[in-house]
């Protein structure tokens, strides 16, 4: 192993394999907190676009008509800008239908070049010919003043030549000064001619916030539009919202706010949620040409005036040569004026995407919870189940985003959380694989150590007996102070060393593993195989969550290094000490007995019992399940008890059952001693034919507050 590989492995194993994943989780939390400065922001924006493509806003009603200055109009009436009297004729046609409001999506910042005064300057001597001709700006102003009309204003970040202050700010808007700092502020503006401003009923800005292009438009995709901004420290609505306000009588605007900024805006009875900076997360509908009319057709009388009745009319550009087009999250290429139409539709439907200021906190909580869940669960799982766990967690996060959008148009970023959790999972998985390999090497080392020790102590049976007995746990010491259960055990080899064993240990705070086994044969070979069997049983039972799979692994490992073809009967069980649930596997062993009150029962192993370990090889063992009641006494024993003889008869299971039935109320250790004494009395001094092993477990039930 190279030094770099060893360093990587040590880093993965640090803190029991959890330190490095915790560091990665902290880094992931930092990236999520600053996601707009990372490439993940593009992933987030793309995912929010997929939500909209999955379910775009339904545009069932068409309250807006767009009269477009399109290519047909430019061919019919000449290049833009048109004479103001021609624009006045266009507005006159529209106003004849009595629309709710008319919005002009362009700015008349300079005088009409067809004004008589300007023509006279260019053509000296023509003043007498032009005398008496109307001023086109005055003609347009007179028409604009006939009906509710909203002029466009372009906010400027600094004073420029030709800048002009708008004349129609909103009525008093009550806002916390701290909340207004998040809104767009423009130092100046580009507005229409004063006579047009005076005649118009209102003005609304048409530009986005100053940093919109860098922050919210990825590859030309428009996702957010502003609703409220300050120009010369005066509040103004965007053009479409100002049109709605005028149609409703020009009342005040209510702003929902918090210390972080805006939360929503209300115009009359219509409400829309917003971001803290006043931007609207527009829920786009599919593009449609139904509500687009050519200005040339309107001027030519193709459409009757009634088509504009009770509708909002926006006059704007619809020619590629006159304006930039934007891409919607749905993939549609739209003229900018279409955005105004969709804003009005969204307000009237009160439909918008929702990503309130607390949504990032929800995502951060989900990230930390998912990361801690992986850190806690993956090291305890087999690699296959660990992969399934991460896949399930990722699908849950991504699916939650889709469900949140479908349920209430909430924008929850699940994919970014899955991407951020992937390094945490990979580190945990690497640590788990390294730990599994280390356990395998340790098991092999222990096996080899057992063989070497057996060879060194050949002929020293007394020393071997001490070593063998030292491998067995002392239940009273291991579980001192335990109130939920009590265990007693006894093992007496028929010779100096034997092939029986028992084991008991906690897999975790709630699960207790108990085991008993009987190796075929006697003496040193059996004792060596017993040591191997006990070691593998303990190691693999801790390694597996599935008891049956653990027993299969035990058999495979024992069969791999079994030149003497020994086999071992075993009964291994896991008790949930809180619920009393007992899962067990029987490999050719006698079924344990259960004392429940005055009744003596047998644990049912007939349906799930398999052959002894190493008898058939790779047998698919199955686990059984039973449930203990508080006060139950479980008795595990080897055939050294049931087959003990007095020279003529065997002790048998019935005598064992009778002995259990008459046991006094004492500790399991004392009860083990009483049963052992009963067996020895029955033998009447005859030499034991086999090792005697007993393990008694009394379950007291769960203790509150333990």
Keywords:
single chain, 706 residues, alpha+beta, Phosphatase 2c, domain 1, 3 domains, 7-stranded mixed sheet, 5-stranded antiparallel sheet, 41% helix, rod-shaped, CHASE2, CHASE2 domain-containing protein, transmembrane helix
What does this structure look like?
- This protein has 706 residues and is an alpha+beta fold.
- The protein folds into three domains: 3-54 and 356-432; 64-349, no CATH class; 468-699, 4-Layer Sandwich (Phosphatase 2c, domain 1).
- The chain is built from 24 helices and 29 strands.
- Strands 1, 2, 3, 5, 6, 16 and 17 form a seven-stranded mixed β-sheet that branches. Strands 20-29-28-25-26 form a five-stranded antiparallel β-sheet.
- Strand 25 and strand 26 form a beta hairpin.
- The protein is rod-shaped, with a radius of gyration of 43 Å.
């Amino acid at each position: 192993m190279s030094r770099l590989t060893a360093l990587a492995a040590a880093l993965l194993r640090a803190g029991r394999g959890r330190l490095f994943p915790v560091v990665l989780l902290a880094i992931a939390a930092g990236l999520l907190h600053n996601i707009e400065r990372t490439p993940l922001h593009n992933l987030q924006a793309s995912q929010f676009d997929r939500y909209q493509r999955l379910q775009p806003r339904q545009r069932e009603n068409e309250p807006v008509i767009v009269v477009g200055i399109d290519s047909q109009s430019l061919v019919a009436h000449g290049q833009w800008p048109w004479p103001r009297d021609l624009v006045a004729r266009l507005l006159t046609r529209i106003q004849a239908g009595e629309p709710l409001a008319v919005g002009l999506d362009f700015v008349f910042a300079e005088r009409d070049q067809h004004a008589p005064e300007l023509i006279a300057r260019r053509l000296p001597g023509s003043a007498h010919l032009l005398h008496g001709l109307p001023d086109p700006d005055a003609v347009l102003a007179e028409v604009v003043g006939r009906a509710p009309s909203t002029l466009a204003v372009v906010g400027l970040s600094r004073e420029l030549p030709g800048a002009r202050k708008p004349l129609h700010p909103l009525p008093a808007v009550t806002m916390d000064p701290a909340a207004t700092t998040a809104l767009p502020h423009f130092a100046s503006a580009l507005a229409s001619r004063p006579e047009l401003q005076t005649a118009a009923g209102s003005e609304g800005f048409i530009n986005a916030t100053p940093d919109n292009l860098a922050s919210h438009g990825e590859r030309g995709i428009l996702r957010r539009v502003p609703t409220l901004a300050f120009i010369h420290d005066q509040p103004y609505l965007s053009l479409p919202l100002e049109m709605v306000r005028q149609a409703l009588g020009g009342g005040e605007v209510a702003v929902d706010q918090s210390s972080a900024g805006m939360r929503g805006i209300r115009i009359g009875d219509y409400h829309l949620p917003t971001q803290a900076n006043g931007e609207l997360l527009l829920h786009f509908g599919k593009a449609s040409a139904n509500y687009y009319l050519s200005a040339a057709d309107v001027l030519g009388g193709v459409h009757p005036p009634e088509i504009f009745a009770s509708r909002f009319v926006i006059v704007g550009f619809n020619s590629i040569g006159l304006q930039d087009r934007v891409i919607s999250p749905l993939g549609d290429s739209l003229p900018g004026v279409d955005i105004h139409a969709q804003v009005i539709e969204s307000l009237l439907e009160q439909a918008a995407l929702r990503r309130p200021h607390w949504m990032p906190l929800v995502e951060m909580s989900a990230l930390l919870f998912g990361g801690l869940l992986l850190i806690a669960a993956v090291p305890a799982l087999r690699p296959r189940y660990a992969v399934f766990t991460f896949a399930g967690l990722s699908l849950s996060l991504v699916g939650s985003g889709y469900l949140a959008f479908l349920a209430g148009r909430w924008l929850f970023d699940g994919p970014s959380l899955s991407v951020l959790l992937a390094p945490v999972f990979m580190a945990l998985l690497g640590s788990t694989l390294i730990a599994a390999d280390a356990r395998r090497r340790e098991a092999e080392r222990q096996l080899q150590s057992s063989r070497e020790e057996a060879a060194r102590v050949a002929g020293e049976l007394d020393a071997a007996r001490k070593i063998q007995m030292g491998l067995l746990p002392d239940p009273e010491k291991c579980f001192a102070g335990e109130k939920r259960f009590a265990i007693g055990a006894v093992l007496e080899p028929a010779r100096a060393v034997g092939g029986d064993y028992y084991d008991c240990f906690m897999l975790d705070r709630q699960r207790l593993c108990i085991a008993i086994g009987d190796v075929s044969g006697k003496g040193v070979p059996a004792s060596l195989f017993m040591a191997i069997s006990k070691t593998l049983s303990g190691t693999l039972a801790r390694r597996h969550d599935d008891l049956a799979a653990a027993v299969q692994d035990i058999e495979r490992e024992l069969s791999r290094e079994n030149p003497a073809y020994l086999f071992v009967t075993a009964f291994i069980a896991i008790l949930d000490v809180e619920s009393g649930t007992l899962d067990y596997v029987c490999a050719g062993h006698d079924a344990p007995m259960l004392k429940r009150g005055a009744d003596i029962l047998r644990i049912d192993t007939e349906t799930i019992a398999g052959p002894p370990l190493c008898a058939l090889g790779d047998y698919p063992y199955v686990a059984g399940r039973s449930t203990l009641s508080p006060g139950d006494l479980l008795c595990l024993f080897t055939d050294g008890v049931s087959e003990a003889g007095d020279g003529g008869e065997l002790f048998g299971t019935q005598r064992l059952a009778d002995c259990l039935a008459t046991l006094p109320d004492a500790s399991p250790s004392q009860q083990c001693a009483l049963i052992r004494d009963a067996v020895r009395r029955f033998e009447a001094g005859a030499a034991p034919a086999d090792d005697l092993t007993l393990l008694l477990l009394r379950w007291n039930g769960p203790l509150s507050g333990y």
